[in-house]
Amino acid sequence: MNKRYNSLITDSLKYSLTKVFPGIVGLISIIVIIKIIGAEEYGKYSILYSFVLTLTAFCGGWLNQALLRYYPGNNDIKKIENQAILCLLISVLSGILILIGIYIIKGDSLFQNTNIFLVIFFFIAVLLYQFQISIYRSQIRPNMVVLITSIQSILSLIMPLFFIYHFNSEVKYIIIGLTIAYLGSSIKNIFFKIASLKHIFTYQKKSNFILYELFKFGWPLSIWLTLSLALQFLDRFFINYYYDNNLTGIFAGFYDLVVRIFSIFIFPITMAVHPRMMSLWNKSKYSNAISIWKIAILIQILIFAFIYTIIQLFFEEISYSLLWLFSDLNPKYFHLLIPLLIGGFIWQFALLIHKPLELNKSTHLMLISIAIALIVNLLGNIMFLPKYGLIATAYTFVLSGTVYIISSTILSISFYKKIFTQSKSIIK
Question: For residues 254 and 325, what is the distance between their CA atoms, to the nearest angstrom?
Fold first, then answer.
């Protein structure tokens, strides 16, 4: 038991490295880029970037989540890898078709006047990077995740600044730099994986079954990821619609700051616990999987309590630091930090709370919860953003996350009853 928990803590620390270093570099990137291009241009960039992330979730999220669910502890790993490459190609083609369709209907307005071919290459680069990270996470190889994310974070700072310095501060040059960063950190490993393409056309019926199982489990999660990222996109879209790019950039700057903080301290717990839980569950070690889940929940709550306490005690000092770091951000909006901090934790915490639905393969129920949260987000922004400003969007962020956790817990009641029944039978 102690060995298992020690492994969880060790992997969490390793995954922290995948977030600490990229998180610090990401914070530097946010600060430097906002200083160079200003809040308005950063607002334009944030809309395009969040849109591409939403699209990659829609086209490839199902595959990444299915790999994390079925890969650990599976005896047919080679067949799963072969089918995963085929699924990756399907995801790439579907995303390209969607982007072309949007361009035909809307023109380049949604792409912030960025060339459609550049947006396509950026989409492919992000998709390949996320696929590679999912492979290593499902193999429980945190060292490789550390290496790839570190390379990506360094390139994501250097390359955009290189193109901004040598050309100008338009959004397209930031996207060119990020495309190179995502491709440069994963292209070698992806080409190695694609070498297995020669096997995918000779698979047997069992491989067909694997492909079906991957898609059956993953597609609801892909929709879930799309809707969850759409929350971020819609926040920025509505702010831009009701106000301007400048306020969009201010909100995006604070939001990205909070996300970086929690990606360093909270998300590594989720990254470490997920493959271990799935591996134990796939091996029918149900009580062990639940025990790890409970420990992860407790650790996240304690970390958030510590961070929140520190910020409340030193809020004035932190505000002065933010004013020095983000000189282009209006200090009257620093009050956004607390609700965004709470909302950021709630949504990170939700990734653990809905684990019972994932374990029970009830991913379709997760869609119900995220759909409710999306409705809350839409109503909150449409009804209150024009009247109360950015603070309405910040508190809508908190409320939608809370609603998601409550609905996920309610929908997991049958799972809890089953576990409780199994525990009583074991005791007897």
Answer: 12
Cβ-based neighbour number of residue 191 at 10 Å: 10
CB 346 within 8 A of CB 200: no
Model confidence band, residue 178 (pLDDT cutoffs 50, 70, 90)? very high
Compute the distance between CA of residue 89 and CA of residue 48 in angstroms, rounded to an integer.
Answer: 23
Q: What are the phi and psi torsion angles at 109 (to 5°)?
A: -65, -45
Those residues whose C-beta lies under 8 Å from the C-beta of residue 268, and which sit 6 or more positions away, are 12, 13, 14, 15, 16, 18, 19
Other CB atoms within a 10 A radius of the CB of residue 135 amount to: 22
Residues 181 and 178: their CA atoms lie apart, in Å, by 5
How far lies 297's CA from each of 270, 307, 357, in Å?
9, 16, 16
* DSSP one-letter code for 329: S
Angle at 169 between CA 164 and CA 174, to 5 degrees: 60
* Structure-token match 């109503």, residue found: 379
CB-facing half-sphere around the CA of 174: CA atoms within 13 A: 22
> The tokens 């709550």 sit on which residue?
301
Residue 205 has what pLDDT? 44
Q: What is the pLDDT of residue 427?
A: 41
**Cα-based angle 357, 358, 361 (whole degrees, multiple of 5):** 85
